[in-house]
Amino acid sequence: MVVNIRNRGEAQAAAERLARLADRLLVEEMIADGVAEVLIGVTVDPQFGQVLVMGAGGVLTELLRDTVSLLPPFTPSAIEAAIKKLSVHRLLTG
């Protein structure tokens, strides 16, 4: 993961470094003035296959251990219900 990319040159350099690790890159806009950092990731478990993990992000990931995991299909209603189980949900909704 690379954050705080400020220009095209930094983006190109980061992409070249990350390309050595995987054949695909996910690029997202970084929001600097957000309310909370949220962890969203997908992993492949040998037993269950794809698993979607969501939770409190940043340093709160380790401090709160506030995560939920979902197995496919990842429907909007299942994702919404899982987010509502998180402690960080109260922060996200004000």
Which structural class should the secondary elements be placed in? alpha+beta
Summarize the biggest pleated sheet. 3 strands, antiparallel
In helices, the fraction of residues equals 25-40%
Overall structural domain count: 2
Second-tier CATH architecture of the largest domain:
2-Layer Sandwich
Please name the fourth-level CATH homologous superfamily of the largest domain.
ATP-grasp fold, B domain
- Highest-level CATH class of the largest domain: Alpha Beta
End-to-end distance: 29 Å
> What is the radius of gyration?
16 Å
Q: Return the string of H and E elements.
A: HEEHEHH
Mean pLDDT: 89
Global morphology: globular
Query: Looking across the biggest beta sheet, what order are the strands in?
Result: 1-2-3
- Strand count: 3
CATH fold-level topology of the largest domain: D-amino Acid Aminotransferase, Chain A, domain 1
Low-pLDDT parts are none
Q: In percent, how much strand structure appears in the residues?
A: 15-25%
The helix tally amounts to 4
Properties at a glance:
32% helix; D-amino Acid Aminotransferase, Chain A, domain 1; three-stranded antiparallel sheet; alpha+beta; 4 helices; 21% strand; 94 residues
Description:
- With 94 residues, this protein is of the alpha+beta class.
How are the secondary structure elements laid out?
Blueprint: H1 8-19, E1 38-45, E2 49-56, H2 60-64, E3 67-70, H3 76-84, H4 89-92
Antiparallel strand pairs: 1-2, 2-3
Outline:
With 94 residues, the chain is α+β, with helices and mostly antiparallel strands.
